[in-house]
C-alpha cells in the first residue's frame, strides 16, 4: 500500500497507531556511542579543564582564544578517534584484557577524584594500573591453576 493512495486522515491514524522505532543497527550504534562518550568523559574532563584554559588564556584576544579552543577540540577529537581504532592493538601489545581495563579505569577514577590531573597523567596512570592489575591477575590465575583441589572421599 503506497502513501499516495491513502488519505491524510488514514496516514495520520497509521502514524498514531504505529510508534516509530529505531532500526536495530541504529539503536546499537546509539548505545555504543553513549557508552563511549560516558566512559571517556570523566577521563578527558572538559568541565574540569575549562577553568585552567580560561586562566591560562585570560590575556589572549577573544579571537585567539576562540581559535585555540577550536584547535584543542579538534586535537581532542582526533585523539579519541585514534584511541578508538588503535586502542585494541595497544591493549593486545601489552597483554591487557578488557576486564582489567574496567578494573583499572575504576581504580584510577576513584583514586584521582577532583585532583585536577592532566589528561596525559590520567592516561599514563590508567595504563600503569591496567598493566599492574593484569600482572597480578595472571599471577593469581596461574597460581590457582597450579593448585589441585583434593577432596577426601
Kindly list the characteristics that best describe this protein.
153 residues, mainly alpha, 2 domains, 0% strand, flat
Tally of domains: 2
What is the CA–CA distance across the termini? Answer: 73 Å
Largest sheet: none
Radius of gyration: 25 Å
Q: N-to-C SSE series?
A: HHHHHH
Assign a percent range to the helix content.
Answer: over 70%
Structural class: mainly alpha
**What is the overall number of helices?**
6
Tell me the number of strands: 0
Low-confidence stretches are: none
- For the residues shown, what is the average pLDDT? 74
Shape: flat
Query: Into which percentage range does the β-strand content fall?
Result: under 5%
Structural commentary:
This protein has 6 helices and no strands. 77% of the residues lie in helices and 0% in strands. With 153 residues, the protein is mainly α. The radius of gyration is 25 Å and the shape is flat. The protein folds into 2 domains: 45-94; 95-153. It has helices spanning 8-17, 24-44, 46-56, 62-94, 98-112, 119-146.
Amino acid at each position: 500500500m503506497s502513501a499516495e493512495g491513502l488519505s491524510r486522515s488514514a496516514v495520520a491514524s497509521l502514524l498514531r497507531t504505529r510508534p516509530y522505532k529505531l532500526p536495530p543497527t541504529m539503536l546499537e550504534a546509539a548505545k555504543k556511542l553513549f557508552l563511549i562518550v560516558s566512559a571517556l568523559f570523566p577521563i578527558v574532563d572538559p568541565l574540569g579543564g575549562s577553568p585552567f584554559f580560561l586562566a591560562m588564556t585570560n590575556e589572549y584576544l577573544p579571537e585567539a582564544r576562540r581559535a585555540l579552543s577550536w584547535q584543542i577540540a579538534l586535537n581532542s577529537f582526533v585523539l579519541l578517534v585514534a584511541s578508538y581504532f588503535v586502542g585494541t592493538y595497544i591493549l593486545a601489545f601489552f597483554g591487557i584484557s578488557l576486564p582489567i581495563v574496567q578494573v583499572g579505569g575504576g581504580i584510577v577514577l576513584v583514586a584521582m577524584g577532583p585532583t585536577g590531573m592532566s589528561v596525559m597523567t590520567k592516561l599514563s596512570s590508567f595504563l600503569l594500573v591496567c598493566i599492574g592489575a593484569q600482572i597480578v591477575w595472571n599471577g593469581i590465575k596461574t597460581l590457582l591453576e597450579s593448585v589441585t583441589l583434593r577432596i577426601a572421599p
